[in-house]
Design a protein that fits this description.
The protein is of the alpha/beta class. 50% of the residues lie in helices and 11% in strands.
Length: 514
Amino acid sequence: MTTQPVDNTDLWAGLPTLEEPPAPVWEDPVPLAGPRKLAPFPTASLPGWLREFVAAVAEETQTPVDLAGCIALSVLATAAGGRAVVQVRGHWREPTNLYVVVSLPPANRKSAVFGLLTDPLYEAEKRLRTLTQPAIVEAEMNARLAKEAADKATAKAASASADERDELVSTAIALAQTAESVRVPAKPQLLADDTTAETVTSRMAEQGGRISVMSAEGDIFDIIAGRYSGKPNMGVFLKGHAGDRLKVDRQTREEYIEHPALTMGLCVQPQVLDDIGRQDGFKGRGLLGRFLYSVPESLVGRRKIEPDPIPEQLMETYRRHVLDLTLFLAEWTDPALIQLTPEAVAALKAFQTRVEPMLEARGGIMGQIGDWGGKLVGATARMAALLHLAEHLTKGHMVPVAEATMRDAIALGEYFISHSLAAFDSMGADRIVERARTVLEVLHAHGWREVSKRDLMVKLSRSEFRTANDLDPVLALLEDHGYVRAQAIQRTGGRGRPPSPRYLIHPRLTDQTA
């Protein structure tokens, strides 16, 4: 008997079709940041006399030209900070003080470079003290005489009879008020070194709102972190960069600075950057975002044994120009206003247009250091004003900044982008990116389509990921760049450990093509 095949087509006709869920649609992931390519220091951006001296210092000391170039900017900022501002556009004005830090290993002759660059500032400080000495002596004498007169009047009023007392008390009060009103000018000071935050504040208050911290060591970071106070003290360093009002009202002193202008020119060992990146408060308060960073390659091991010495004429020209600029601007109580030409404004605006996309959190080259990048255009305007003053010296306030000078400042700004990115790598801003690369390698090696956070932790090094919390910012970064997708956690409602978060993996990693 032959069995006929049964046609079951009609049996399934009314039932829903079971289909595989559609595969998720993935866009190409955004690459993580790659190795940093450091730009060479643009010495051509400096005015001729300064460019030649910086190159000569680098040659004689056999140090990277970056070191002398960055300290030269700090020298200009010391001369102009608190005494000149640049009008960018509208109500946007920038002071001309800078925070600059160079990172170099030991044995790089940092002190020698600092000495050669800063000597004219110390000479200017001495000259200012000589010029003001007669006024200080006169004010001290007037203050002493006024106090003695007030003291005598007070004693006389205290021993007077009742009918004379009222008149003598009034006289004593008037003399005491006169004595109190006599102000003795402080000795001029341009530079400070190993100093506390309180001392920096006091010095700025005494010096008409400005002071400069120049050092070939990184001790100032320890001081800011609380070496003497036991806790971070950043207020003066934050406000001293931006020019925000600074008021100190304590039992021991009361000080008020309308527009503080603090300049810092520092050279530190690379370990210092590593350390401050780990200290609480430095990045969160925004202090690290105020520095312009330089991380040049050391020349140790490749230096000339008999380099060319600095020509005496170059040394004298540098000395004379720094003296002229510093002494001229020291006379300004209301800051000199530096204007920009329309062409310079347009060049700065075009630079700002290029910088803005770099700040994009997802994929922008400065997305991880937006606090620093957001201040770059303002710092570039400051550098343009300093280059302009160095070019025109005592006449810089009489002519506006030219387009060529602004483009020189922009070249410096671009230099500091690449070096500051590298510096923030050292300070931990890119430590998450490094860990993210490690996770990508693990995902690529195992070819998972989906993985739980718990299973992923098993495959990772405990020296790099000590706890599951260390993995959270890395997974967030990878998700933000499109490499993984977090899945909704399915709650069972039962007791015990909650289910581990799960992540879908980009097909490029699964297919071994990443």
